[in-house]
Amino acid sequence: xxxEKAYNxxxxxxxxxxxxxxxxxxxxxxxxxxxxKFNSVLEIGCGTGxxxxxxxxxxxxxxxxxxxxxxxxxxxxxxxxxxxHFQKADVxxxxxxxxxxxxxxxxxxxxxxxxxxxxxxxxxxSKLKTGGHFFISELHPxxxxxxxxxxxxxxxxxxxxxxxxxHISDFLNAGKKAGFQLFELKEWFDEDSTDPPRIISLLFxxx
Length: 207
Ligand SMILES: C[S@@+](CC[C@H](N)C(=O)[O-])C[C@H]1O[C@@H](n2cnc3c(N)ncnc32)[C@H](O)[C@@H]1O
Prior knowledge:
Layout: H1 3-14, H2 20-33, E1 40-44, H3 50-58, E2 61-66, H4 69-78, E3 84-88, E4 102-108, H5 117-126, E5 128-139, H6 141-145, E6 151-154, E7 157-160, H7 168-178, E8 181-188, E9 199-205
Parallel strand pairs: 1-2, 1-4, 2-3, 4-5
Antiparallel strand pairs: 5-9, 6-7, 8-9
Bound molecules: S-adenosylmethionine.
S-adenosylmethionine binds next to helix 1, helix 2 and helix 3.
Protein name: Class I SAM-dependent methyltransferase
Keywords: Methyltransferase, Transferase
Organism: Christiangramia lutea
């Protein structure tokens, strides 16, 4: 099943089923960005708007993109403010859908579905203002090495989505190649376990 189709199917349960990665990512995003100043945000892979909801309390303008019609439909139901614009688009294709430059580009839990990391970094760099930030929060590669991946139950079937493993060095090298400076790298753990970190977050700056 294509990734787009899988998220269309997952959408009705995405917000409600047990998902520690989704829940931790929300905390990570707030903790990482609450002290950063930004007015305009480009959010890629916004899904059901879990993070758009918080971002719109801090920013004056949000442009949120996803290729799943059904995930977007839920996000639109949650957030109807005029300053939040939702757009259906595949971020593996040129980001021609906006000519604006933003203070912040965010992506959460989407890069595991994208093979060509360098393309995403190049596009993010081109859509940022000088001094702007690129924030990434993703399933930690250590978890991927142990077999964790995006999956959900549809009836009695377990649907596993196509994923790509990006090593920490891949993120750092793609950032450097695009022209970014690394501002912060953090690893986030489940509170009640001694397992490897669940999430990696990186904050890059466009110099
Ligand atoms: C795990 S969900 C994360 C949603 C949201 N960012 C969050 O943290 O809850 C991944 C999202 O990325 C979207 N996505 C995956 N590949 C994409 C692509 N190539 N272009 C646009 N959206 C994509 C999916 O449709 C899905 O909504």
